[in-house]
Design a protein that fits this description.
The structure is a homodimer. The first copy, chain A, is an alpha/beta fold. In chain A, about 45% of the residues lie in helices and about 15% in strands. Chain A folds into 2 domains: about 160 residues, Isopropylmalate Dehydrogenase (3-Layer(aba) Sandwich); about 160 residues, Isopropylmalate Dehydrogenase, CATH 3.40.718.
């Protein structure tokens, strides 16, 4: 399996992306993993030299052009020589099974859509799914968290299909439960789009284990495995939760530094607190797939450090090793024929494996 | 000033509502506060007997009918003898300056709208504002958190007007800053309604100190004083934040109980932790006004204990003591004439004070 890495993307570039690839490799048991690191050889090679295990299975695809974090997507589309362009194009060309980038989200979305095309013409752009730790100690999936600003009932159902396939592939649960995010659990609650999607899902959609409406606090409770919502609400819910988690964490930290007695207490509890902190490190949930594309594209947080970036790489590996693309394609085709949704799915290309050795 | 209390509302009824009124009274310095407690005298009188200060300024408006927490709003509208109906009707009749209820939200909304009428015919139903603690140590205002499921640009601007008047009245800040919740800060981000509201607010609306777009994590940062959003997004953001805060709190609590050493540490830090816990008790932010009505209606959480309920009563007192209703009416009239919004404001009635002695 070949993973293309946009080595220049993110706030830290090759220092993090190369080390992150190495960390993901160290967790791999297949022995068949290979990496292509797209970017400036002068910057990548010194990082790679420190990591012999990675060096043995990685090649550098050199380019000295890269997309800045604040570059406009329209401009990024025209620059064919950039590391991100080349990395995505390698998935299109079936030279790689998946691409991972911590770079400019807008450019990643636009380039992925242009080069790989959407599986269904219903989707304005790829949906982003994210991992969301919950009280049950598991990791839920929430989508869309930022791509499609308005979503009709068809799109919400497609998110349910894609979220199910993603959760199965990456979290290993065969029939993940799906909930539609709403302001209440009764059938009459919410706006028209969400009620229509609820009606169709409740009637039964092949392959979707539908639970019903869920509310904002159900995400963290882990009431369902996959929470479906439009990109506007999903993005705001995600950022609100991140802000709230940081706020509460800082309050605890502040309290534990507020008096000498509290500081002594914190010192005694430090080992337990550190263990807890790692268990809810946002980096554990890093790696948001761009769903609905003909090809696997995983977005890492721009500010990710090596461990967090390695988790995004592992998401790409899990997806590439699974039947995820096939599942989505088949499920969408079934949904469309059974419920008369207007999406057209694009026929599957021949497998990447036929081309990459 | 007369505050009508729906003494039967909420999960705990008179035990909490009567004690909460007493606690709000104990913080009042005006010496002019009076309460009318609507509900079953047989249940209210024993509670009141324990609280001589409150008993001296309270009267009981007896009824043995009350609205169940799960009763349908349509049914509640027809039951004129309930404690909630009577309490809201007393505001309509100018026998009280404000009403506070911890009861059935749907019934409270429907009855308030039917009896008091909306100030503008633009609003489908009252907007609910909530207090939101932030990193700056202050309390922000977020609206709408659950009433209007879809909101056009006009409604969002009306929320900005009402949120400004509420924040000024209750939080005491003369020119609170206002942000529109969106998925990014650039002008092109978001759906049509939010971009149109942004365009109008940026041009300048009298009385609104507009900051611009804000994102989910800006709510907890306290980037602005008043965050405006539609009721669907606002409700989900609020419940997601409540769920996240509880989750992170429980993680810390769990960690501090996970080993004997951590438990010893928690014991040393317990005084600092308790102080912190109280500062972010959700009860501190209890009391969400139903905005846009001809009359002051404050909703308390159904599960509120006496201290939390007392904060909702204090919100009602602050609103009733301020020029809040007049401010909203005037600001809406100015907005409508300057920007051609289609809302009609209803002329102000004569002040309650003329009627209640």
């Amino acid at each position: 399996m070949v993973i293309a890495i946009d080595a220049m993307g993110g706030d830290h570039g090759p220092r993090v992306t190369v080390a992150g690839a190495a960390e993901a490799l160290s967790r791999d048991t297949s022995g068949r993993l290979r990496f292509v690191l797209h970017g400036d050889e002068a910057l990548i090679a010194p990082e790679l030299a420190k990591l012999p295990a990675l060096k043995a299975v990685a090649t550098i695809a050199h380019t000295d052009q890269f997309i800045a974090m604040d570059e406009k997507p329209a401009q990024a589309l025209r620059r064919k020589g950039t590391s991100l362009f080349a990395a995505i194009a390698s998935v299109k060309a079936r030279d790689a099974h998946a691409v991972v980038s911590a770079g400019n989200t807008g450019a990643l979305m636009a380039l992925s859509k242009m080069l790989l095309k959407m599986m269904t013409d219903d989707l304005e752009r790829p949906a982003i799914a994210c991992g969301w730790p919950n009280e049950k100690g598991g990791m839920g999936t929430v989508l869309d968290v930022g791509a499609n600003v308005t979503s009709d009932a068809n799109q919400l159902i497609e998110f349910a299909v894609m979220g199910t396939a993603f959760h199965r592939a990456v979290r290993g649960k065969d029939r993940p439960t799906v909930g539609l995010l709403n302001v209440g659990s009764e059938d009459v609650k919410g706006h028209e789009e969400v009620r229509e999607a609820h009606r169709i899902l409740r009637e039964g959609v092949d392959g979707i284990n539908y639970h019903g409406f869920v509310e904002g606090d159900d995400i963290g409770k882990g009431t369902v495995d996959v929470v479906v919502t439009d990109g506007f609400t999903g993005n705001i819910a995600l950022k609100t939760a991140e802000g709230t988690a940081k706020f509460v964490k800082n309050l605890f930290k502040g309290a534990l530094k507020s008096t000498p007695l509290a500081m002594a207490g914190a010192l005694l509890a430090s080992s337990a607190l550190k263990k807890m902190a790692r268990s809810v490190d946002p980096g554990a949930a890093n790696g948001g797939p761009l769903l609905g594309l003909n090809g696997i594209v995983v977005k890492s947080h721009g500010g990710a450090e090596a461990w967090a970036f390695s988790n995004a790489v592992s998401v790409a590996i899990s997806l590439a090793a699974s039947t995820y693309e096939h599942d989505i394609r088949q499920a969408l085709a079934q949904v469309n024929s059974a419920h008369g949704l207007k999406s057209d799915t694009v026929p599957a290309d021949k497998a990447v494996d036929e081309k990459v050795s």
